[in-house]
Every structure is written in C-alpha cells, then in structure tokens.
Automatic annotation (TrEMBL):
Pfam family, one: Pro_CA
GO molecular function (one): carbonate dehydratase activity
Family matches, as InterPro entries: Carbonic_anhydrase (IPR001765), Carbonic_anhydrase_sf (IPR036874)
UniProt xrefs under PANTHER family: CARBONIC ANHYDRASE, CARBONIC ANHYDRASE 2
Region annotation (Disordered) ranges: 26-54
Protein name: Carbonic anhydrase
Source species taxonomy: Bacteria, Pseudomonadati, Acidobacteriota, Holophagae, Holophagales
Residues of the signal peptide: 1-17
Length: 264
C-alpha cells in the first residue's frame, strides 16, 4: 500500500505598528526558492510570487517580519532546508522588494530583524547610516533596475558613530573618521542639547534626527529617487531600531511634491 504524506504548514503573521501604520500585507511565506521569469536585459528577474507589489505592502512586510523577530517566531530566516534551492534560484538574478540603509554596527543584523531571506533585501551599510554618493547610487540601482518599492534609512539606539560625532562637538576626529562628521554635517546644530537633558537622552534624539536627515538628504541628492517617490512608486522611510527590544520604529514616508511640467 502506498502511503501519501500529508504536509501541513501553518504560518502566522503579526504586523508591527509603531509611529507609521502601514497597511497590512497578506503575503504568505512560501518555499524560499521561487521561479524567476526572464526579463529584459539589464533588469532583475520577476519578483517572487509573494513579493510585495507596492510601497505600502513592502513596508507592511518589513513590519510583519520585525514583529516575528521580536516575538522570537522568525519564519523566513529559519528554513535551512531551502538553502540549496534558494541559492540556485538566485543565481539567475535578484528582485529585492526593499532597500535597507543602516549602520555597520554588528548588533543590527537587518536580514534577521526583518526576517527576510536572501534575495529580498538590498542592504547598504555605513557607520552612522549616512550613505555617501556610491551608497545613493546603489539605492538608485535597486529602485530603478531591481524594482525595490521602499527605501528604509534606519538608525539605531546606542549608535557609536553618532556618539563619536556628538562627543567631538565640532573638533576633527582622527584619521578618516572626519568622514563621519562630514556625513552628519549640521546634525548637532539642528538638534542641540537641552539644558535639562542628560547625554543619553540627547544621544537618542540625535539618532532619530540623523535617520530623518539622512532620508531627506538622499532625496535631495537624487532626482531619480524623487521622481519615483513623486510617482508613488517608491517610499523613502526613516526608521530607528531599538537594540533592547528588537523593535523597529518606522516614521512617516517622506513627502515628495511632483515637479511642475516644463513649459516650452
């Protein structure tokens, strides 16, 4: 007698709602390896069947993944049996639904804290989550050529880079560390310490302000990203990761006003 195996898979999603209430995405994790359809040369493969198809859905998926991480119920990053199939699928290209620009800090494992396996996040890491020109170009590539729907610029609590800039208080840091100060130019002036505020509280405000400022600076420096955001094809979202709780606090997507049509 032949025995027919019965496979039952149950997955629960919880959408994390912080400062930004993103619409709930009904994406169901399937096998990590998805077939990729061919696409025109120079572009990534077609997104996986369960990939978010809008900026709102992309942000909701990141929130849901973070909620799983906080609850200790990761799904997408706890499936080693799919590793070989996933590698084989990704040989043909990538279609990450989100760009994450975050700090190089070893305590900020973006793929784990968003519970997303390889091929779903396009990550740019620099100390102080302050992308330079190449970082901005990388984000443009992901949004324009790979179809990413959201760019999250994520700071974090207890950031050593922000702390170093704060403590230097305008004095040049040694070696090439001056680049950290250049990347955060104007941060201290825009967010001065209140006389009744202790250093830890001020650092926390600086970390949030830096994430917001870096997100705005990226749009200011990239006409390509501004155009995509104005067309509502892309969201640029500041965020802050809290080391102790594991929660990611999303702020509102930056508003972009479409450029008026040119008159000839």
């Amino acid at each position: 007698m032949r025995l027919l195996p019965l496979i039952l898979a149950t997955t629960t999603f919880t959408l994390l709602a912080e400062d930004h209430a993103a619409p709930a995405a009904k994406a169901k994790p399937k096998a990590a390896a998805q077939a990729h359809a061919p696409t025109p040369a120079g572009h990534g493969p077609a997104p996986a069947a369960d990939a978010p198809d809008s900026p709102a859905a992309a942000l909701a998926e990141l929130g849901a993944g973070n909620a799983r991480f906080v609850a200790g119920k990761r799904v997408r990053t706890l499936n080693p049996g799919q590793d070989a199939a996933l590698r084989a699928a990704l040989v043909h290209g990538q279609a990450p639904f989100a760009v994450v620009i975050t700090c190089s800090d070893s305590r900020v494992p973006d793929a784990l804290l968003f519970d997303q396996e390889a091929g779903r996040l396009f990550t740019i890491r620099e100390a102080g989550n302050a992308p330079d020109l190449q970082g901005i170009a990388s984000a443009e590539y992901a949004a324009e050529h790979l179809g990413s729907k959201v760019i999250v610029i994520m700071g974090h609590s207890s950031c050593g880079a922000v702390k170093a800039v704060r403590e230097a208080n305008g004095k040049a840091l040694p070696g090439n560390l001056w680049a950290l100060q250049a990347g955060m130019a104007g941060l201290l002036e825009s967010t001065p310490q209140d006389p009744n505020e202790d250093a830890k509280a001020h650092l926390g405000r600086l970390e949030e302000a830096n994430a917001r400022r870096q997100a705005q600076a990226m749009l200011d420096r990239s006409a390509l990203l501004r155009d995509l955001a104005a067309a509502e094809k892309l969201w640029v979202v500041p965020a802050l990761y809290h080391l102790a709780s594991g929660k990611v606090q999303f702020f509102k997507p930056l508003a972009v006003v479409p450029a008026p049509p040119a008159h000839h």
